Amino acid sequence: MAGWARSGLPAGVSTALAFLAGAFTNVFTQGWSLPVGAGLAVLVVGWVGWEMRQAARAADDRGPEPDPGTTPPDPTPSGAAVVPRQLPAAVRHFAGRSTELATLTRQLRQSRADHGDAMAVSTIAGTAGIGKTALAVHWAHQAADDFPDGQLYVNLRGFEPAGAAMTTTAEALRGFLDAFEVPPHRIPDSLDAQAALYRSLLAGKRALVVLDNARDADQVRPLLPGTVGCVVLVTSRNRLSSLVTVEGAHPLILDLLTPDEARELLARRLGTERLAAEPEAVTEIIRHCARLPVALAVVAARAATNPTFTLTVLAAQLRETRDRLDALTDDDTNDVRSVFSWSYRSLTPETARLFRLLGLHPGPDITAPAAASLAGLPLARVRPLLAELVRANLVVEHVPRRYTFHDLLRAYANEQAYAVDSDDERRAALRRSLDHYLHTAYAAAHLLDRYRDPITLPAPRPGVTPESSADHRQALAWFTAEHQVLLAAVDVAAATGSENHAWQLAWALDNFLWFGGHWPELAEVGRTALDAARRLADRPAEARAHQNLVHAYTRLGRYDEAERHGRQALTLHRQGDNLAGQAHTHMFLTKLRTRQGRHAEALDHARQALHLYTEVGEEIWQADALNAVGGQHGKLGEPEQALDFCQRALAIYQRHDDRRGQVWTWENLGFAHHHLGDHPAAVACYHRALDLCRSLDYPDSEAELLAQLGDTRQAAGDLDAARDSWNQALAIIAPDHVDADGIRGKLRNLQVPTGAVDDPRPR
């Protein structure tokens, strides 16, 4: 067990802000594609139910020691069926599309009539801003009762401009598993295993899966259920012809609104009386908007917020703007650009500047504090500017306190930034944004792990006001909410010459990604950090990046790569005379060798770490290494030495009230007592570890402890208790967990009757 990984992130504490960060996406007009932040919603909304139940029993990670005399009840998984309801809020002011809605319903019924309960797929294709998302979401709400087992939704963000994060298929799949409240520690590592688990969860269910804004068929296929009874609705700017050919999808090509439908959309927002008073102006407005819902929505917002303006005046302004753009360019997108330009020119200068700078922001959405740093303005000044943009329908507050664009408006804002603002102004805004995320993430990372080796940051630029978290729970909530933004920030920093930001942001993200089980992302940001450090010729930064890649590749099972990066990290740390860095790397290599079953080599690395930590003088790190040395002695059949080293580690952990370290030490003590034949002492140690583990909400560690407790109970002759402990362990861990097959083998060796193994997860 990784007793020397110095960052405990209780899983239960992440739920509240994660839910706020992405669970509810509000589509304000028919013209909006679902905001880009919805991908984050899918990633986190599934943790809500499960983690809130877990958080209820989780204590503060530095709270009082649990009573060692109390044996906690064995955990039992909840048997309640989970019904995800991920559809975004119903579309406001939805108008028209009666033919298309009827077509979607007919396609569903026809598919069921022709193929029984076979999975049905429908695709909605059309140009940007034509209302694909609005149609899909509106129909999904109408049809929701046909899907009693739930509705899943993800915005795949397949057509976002460069610099904005795009949800990958892997992230979407992870989000669907979260939606079914599969705890993070039970989610398999590999994409194929996750896809298999997802299909198994949908087996025999009647569920709707909405895959919005897909780039191509390859992005969609891994997200298709493999079962009868499910319906998949896909939207895309492309026609996805291969889905029609191979998967038998029903295509629906979405055209512009009819003139009557466009008039209906305006009437729903402005009222029929106002339209009836100026019918010719309404006709001209519809013509200038090219019957695109997104453009009509912007005009409607301007008219609604200025009720004294006549529609004739608004139509004349649109005509003037269009004529001006026609004189500048023959671009065939001038219809929608003229509407955006007309609305943009009505903004106050300060609000217009903020709108332009938002087009430079690296992430899928933004908070007011981050927007304040981007603009270099006080937070109190930025809030009314954002409110003005919302009233103009140029940005959307898609969840409370988080703002985003329609992707066409993002592109327009970016275009205006390059047309109006100088290179220096744009560069300064981006650097302020990166400073904001770096300094906020750095402070939050230290709240997650107070013993982590610090790095030195330059002072934030003038105008940057980093956010602060009061404790590790708030820090974790901030990381959860900003997860996708931070990943995008790392990439943008590396792509724009901000190499220091790139590797330092990656450093700050390390603990959050590790304990959230985001192993591929951990490796990806590690590679980005390594490339950035090499471009800087910064050897200490390069050593840290290699060191963290050992961490990531070990967990991904890519052991050769982990070893290679470990050796490079050691070489660089030695060249820089960084004793702590050398020791940390030896600890990661101890973990690698342990996973490979090479315990003599693991012991050697642990001993070297202990020697180096002793020279450094950090007592908690010494305890980590003492515990690692003791653990390896136990694995090598030397329980007396294991007791000696682990008892020394335990004394340090208890003196510092470090309950996380005590969990791992009690485990190693239990293992040593087991191999000395003192089974009652071993059981007592394992129960001490389980008490602490459950108070900290460490399910992975809990499963491992239960597995070892089962071994001890078997050795003591209590086969029923052994069976019970192993079954509990299987109920916690993922199907492809490194220990899962071994535990199943032990249960089979007990000659358990067929069907008696209580392993509820599909395999």
Automatic annotation (TrEMBL):
Xref: InterPro entries: NB-ARC, P-loop_NTPase, TPR-like_helical_dom_sf, TPR_rpt
Recorded GO MF terms: ATP binding
One of the Pfam families matching this protein, by short name: TPR_12
Matching PROSITE patterns: TPR
Region described as Disordered: 56-81
TPR repeat start-end pairs: 543-576
Entry keyword annotation includes Transmembrane helix: yes
Amino acid composition bias (Pro residues), ranges on this chain: 66-76
Protein name: ATP-binding protein
UniProt-listed SUPFAM superfamilies: P-loop containing nucleoside triphosphate hydrolases, TPR-like
Keywords assigned: ATP-binding, Membrane, Nucleotide-binding, TPR repeat, Transmembrane, Transmembrane helix
